[in-house]
Design brief:
Radius of gyration: 18 Å
Largest sheet: 2 strands, antiparallel
Number of helices: 7
Order of helices and strands: HHHEEHHHH
Distance between the termini: 11 Å
Helix content: 40-55%
Strand content: 5-15%
Structural class: mainly alpha
Oligomer: single chain
Strand order of the largest sheet: 1-2
Length: 153
Amino acid sequence: MKISKKTDYALRALFTLVEHYGGLPIPIRELARRNDVPKRFLEQIMLDLKSKGWVESTAGVRGGYALGRRPEQITLGEVVRHFDGILAPIDCVSVTGYKRCSQESVCRFRRVFFDARNYVAGVMDRATLADVAKGLPLAGREVAMGFAGGEGI
């Protein structure tokens, strides 16, 4: 699974809002600066997040954005699906982006991708913004170490 820049930026902004949940709204300029996101692109993303009810906006000098729902009520799975459409590694095992394949009846490796889709979807659908915000950032050395048999991932 690979997420788009739009999804990446949306998640960055959401997690900044989680850090300030219950506080004052954060201006778009500040959200863009803190998350290293182009302001104009972030404005479009924030409107999209607002349309889903995940964020609220307040106009004026002290205005900005705040979470529209509690962090426990928003999952990574729903955010990724909203912006990218699917969590599946290939279309023929996607619930939302399903495309029939001519090899469906004989394909052996499709089941592995199906299992991977189910695992990833389960992890993402259980991962609320609140839960993820409690965790620590992933260190570069952890990524470099990988896991046994995971070369090239």
